[in-house]
Write a structure and sequence with these properties.
With 302 residues, the protein is mostly helical. It has helices at residues 2-37, 44-60, 65-88, 96-118, 144-166, 168-178, 180-185, 190-215, 225-238, 243-263, 272-286; strands at residues 123-124, 134-137, 140-143, 218-219. The longest helix has 36 residues, at 2-37.
Length: 302
């Protein structure tokens, strides 16, 4: 009995770390666009949903796993560019509230298109199913995707940190996040900076689509919708105006969600969102600027 409890405990911890890593990637993708455009992109979850459908169709067509991943990235990046060119760029000079409503409209439009095109029952993505099988480490069964998710999340965050601090595009993004108008006067190309942020955010969404599809192979029109809402709460919890606090907030709420989801009895799992969002409200009452922030800064504070 003791061994069984220990196994469950370590399995829950591994799954919580994996979910925290996935949510951290979602948080940094959302935070990056906010840092440059001052826009909370509520359609981010629909980008992930589109990538998940690409993986499902690749499985249906009997494509190998790597080809499905390539298709997933192609679809998500194409949608990200289209969203920027058709919506974000024409509305860039409008108020933040106008752009916020636009992202809501995009989110529900993409969800409705998926519902009409693919139906409410969804499709199954099986090409990456082997990643969901367990491996035994130290006598504990841990799913392969838990290990992969943590490693990929750490690698992506490290690469993003190097991009922001060691490349001209990253430096321009940081300058634009401080004062976009002044950065343009100093020679920063607005379209290049915003396009780069949108592409990086889209690439992270594609990575998340792969990770979530492995863990939940049933892809429906509301795929990743709940996860996006939770991550948005985590981003605000960590600190929306800076990428590292936002990432920590996303990881924290993902890790807490995984731990609580594994600890709660099955018949009480419906109370998980209540516990999570109640905790978010309590933390924000104490630290309204974010749990991991010290002051105002934007992307330059990395």
């Amino acid at each position: 009995m003791t061994v069984a409890i220990l196994n469950v405990s370590w399995q829950t911890l591994a799954d919580a770390l994996a979910l925290g890593g996935v949510y951290a990637l979602m948080a940094v993708g959302i935070g990056l666009v906010f840092g440059v455009l001052r826009l909370v992109n509520f359609a981010y979850g629909q980008l992930i949903m589109a990538g998940a459908y690409a993986l499902a169709f690749a499985s249906q067509w009997n494509w190998p796993g790597w080809a499905g991943i390539v298709l997933c990235f192609a679809v998500v990046l194409a949608l990200s560019v289209a969203m920027d060119r058709l919506v974000f760029r024409p509305l860039r000079t409008q108020s933040p509230s106008v752009m916020l409503v636009a992202t809501f409209a995009i989110a529900f439009l993409l969800q409705s298109i998926a519902l009409l095109a693919f139906g409410p029952l969804g499709k199954i993505a099986t090409s990456l199913a082997p990643l969901n099988r367990p491996v035994t480490i130290g006598g504990v069964d841990i799913r392969k995707i838990a290990i992969v998710a943590v490693l990929v999340a750490a690698g992506c965050l490290l690469l993003l940190q190097l991009l922001l601090t060691r490349t001209s595009v990253g430096l321009h993004m940081r300058a634009a996040s401080m004062d976009f108008d002044t950065a343009r006067l100093l020679g920063v190309r607005a379209n290049r900076v915003i396009g780069g942020a949108v592409l990086i955010s889209g690439a992270l969404a594609a990575v998340v689509a792969v990770m979530l599809t492995v863990q939940n192979p049933l892809v429906t029109p509301d795929f990743a919708l709940y996860d996006t809402i939770v991550v948005l709460a985590g981003v605000v919890l960590g600190g929306l105006t800076r990428p590292i606090p936002a990432t920590l907030g996303g990881f924290s709420i993902g890790f807490a969600s995984g731990i609580l989801g594994g600890a709660l009895p099955t018949n009480q799992s419906q109370y998980l969102p209540t516990f999570l969002f109640a905790a978010v409200i309590l933390v924000l009452l104490v630290r309204p600027n974010g749990l991991f922030t010290r002051g105002g800064g934007q992307l330059e504070r990395v």
